[in-house]
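Incident log, structure service

09:12 report received: a user says their structure output differs between two submissions of the same chain.
09:20 pulled the input from the user's history:
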Amino acid sequence: MNRCKKLILTVCSAAAVGLCSTAVSFAGDTADSVVLNEACASNTAFAAGDGGFYDWIELYNPTGEAVDLSGYGLTDDSTIPDRYVFPEGTVLESGKRLLVFCDAKSSAPAGQLMAPFGLSKNGETLLLTDASGKQVDTMTFGAIGTNVSYGRVPDGSGQFAYLNMSPDAPNQPEDVLRTAVDAPVFSRTPGFYDSGFELTLSAPEGTTIYYTLDGSDPTTESRVYTGPIAIADVSSSANVLSARTDIAVGTQMSPITAPTSPVDKGVILRAIAVDAGGASSSVTSGAYFIGYQNRASFYQDFKVISLVTDSSNLFDYDKGIYVLGKTYDDWKNGPDFDYSTPTWETPANYMQSGSLWERPASMQIFENGSLALTQEVGLRIHGGATRSHNQKSFNVYARSSYGASKVEYDLFSGTVHSQSDGSVIDSFDSFILRNGGNDVQYTRFRDKLNQSLVSDRDMLTQGMEPCVVFIDGEFWGHYEITEKLSDSLIHDHYGIKKSDVCLIKNEELDEGTEAGYAEFTQLYDWIRETDFSDDANYAALCEKLDMQSFMDYMSTEFYIDNTDWGLNNMAMWKSMQVDETNPYGDGKWRFILFDTEYSTNLYGQNNPTDDSFALLMKQECFLSELFSAVCKNETFRRDFCITFMDMANEHFAAERVSSRIAELSAQYQDVTIATYNRFWPDWPGGRFAQSQYSSETQQVRSFYQSRFSNITSALGRTLSMQGRMVTLTVRNDDSCGRVQLNTLTPELSGGSWSGRYYTDTPVTLTATPKAGYQFAYWETGDGKKLTEASCQLTLTGDTTVQAVYTQSILGDVDLDGDVDVADLVSLQRYLLRKDTLTPEQAAQADINGNQQLSAADLVLLRRMLLQ
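09:34 re-ran on a clean worker, output below:
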């Protein structure tokens, strides 16, 4: 009798079991069970049967009998043990191996096994249980390189190492790249807890655990672990990093002030294991927050990001990237010192950029108090002038040198999608933790507001989501998780190969080749010397540049009155290779909207009465040259006027904007005031923080309430409009059809929509009936009927137009509302090829519903008339 054992093999993320992205393993008693023998999370060399390269897991049976794996299998979530089910009859013979490929988007190659998930290059924990759910074996690997595996040497043993991968072959000593010293394992998952507890650390026998509690890198000089560590609420302890005041240039009138009371804190535990030979494991890091259920609601509402790094990386005099540091002192004491230098131009460590000023950090992201991601990353200070603020922005980089080349996690909660295929973007090379930019001491949501209002237009806007950041366990305030401008951003949104992207930022090459930059400079020169009043020249420009993208982009910047824009904060991109299968791969330049917060009444400037067209024309820059040049063309002036008025009427409609401001104001209020008090306790923090926040919110609201009439008048002057502004009201029954107005699909669920337009430019209306209806005509307020579903309407005064539909009647080929001999004649002439039918007519003529028109339909129609 062959006694086979049934097993459940479970794969769960390191985050799910409270482990960080470090090399950790448990070698259980494997003498009488199948073991997890080897795993690879980045395979580009070993092909499956279909030629694909997938992650894989190898099982090995060291026992003396076969093991039946039927019924249960693999999962990447320990709470769902049946995401992949082993086929019935899957048996692993004694001394044999079994490969299971892993991929979330592919089906199993013929004759092979495929689990519906991938393995993370940042590390995974593999758990082996029996049919009753009892743990039999587990193995956890940390950050892993391409074509490198983690496994037992020799097969089935309790010794682990990182290997040159050997799928379905013995793990040999010569395959070993480095012997793994298993990192310490924490008894509780990092996260938020209602009350304190004792935390135990474990590591393999023969190793010593060293740990720190201040975020510093653990070494053999650190504390030796001898017993459980008390994890408690430490928020009342003295501020350490938050007490630093060498993080910006202060003045006598505006000194840099530390928080006046202890900031919220968490316990940061970092640990290593060292064996008898002195070999050290990688670092395990964990952040623990106690008692936050009774604190601000934003800890539950927002993602919380813990950044842990040795404090010297941020605050060391020589190499710290967050402080004035040596760079500042060298300048202040040197020949280039100028006391009148603005703070945002003052040399300092935090003003430095490039790879030499990138520092390593361990990042943990929490959602609803639970650990969602652990990853080693790189940090740089982000921004231009805003680097000089107390609270600084960070660029966050995933790199293979830190363990994983991508942050494979949905940073934006499903709200950011690819324009090329509609999929959620949930993998990132890098991203920004942004401090609000110039709006840092005000609403902190201006940029979010502006971009969200126009995110559906023909330009790229940045995904954003608020979060709370802790650095080495100390509250660092509100940040906005923001997509970073890069070739990866273009690839993710538009499906363009990164190697084909040319990205111009502030008129300089940001990503791509010199050939791409040469194309930009040639375009710039050509624009300067070309007369675009000539329609042939304008048509040639439209072949080089996506004109709708340009018009949408310029309309937005003009409307919001962004005065830190033109030469600065401009970005455009193109694909250097034409791909006819991709509408965005046509080689045309397109535009990116970013850093828009220097607008909408910021600093009491950027007033709603500003003529932002005139302000741009005062600059010498690509955008002003281009806009001035194309304004000489009649077609552009007409199309731009329509685009601008569409967006002014719909995207910047006072009621819509007011609703969005109310939503963001409520969402950001508490976390903004907490951030005020953390970095600017005297002002805007302190006892007037609430009124300051309310006042700033009202500044934005009042800008939008007053902007329409001022900026549309400036539009008329700029484009030399001779007509006047009139009101167009469109009425429609949404249950019957959909209406498009110019570049808009207006919100008509209430039955009507109104906007104002110049009489110089006719508007275009298009009605698309829903199934069961057909378009009849447009009826104007004076009783005129326009029978074309798509038509142009010249406005001479306030106008109301109604879309009228009739219910479709099968057999009503001429769409006159009756089925009669005329319909029979129409169908007969079509079948004799003497006439054509519109798609709407053809739908009514298809009597038998087979999607084809034939003599059979003619016979059925004749029978209908004889009844």
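09:41 both user submissions now match this output. Likely a transient worker issue. Closing.
09:42 reviewer note: The chain has five domains: 7-178, 181-295, 515-675+683-718, 725-807, 821-866. Residues 600 and 700 are 5 Å apart (CA to CA).
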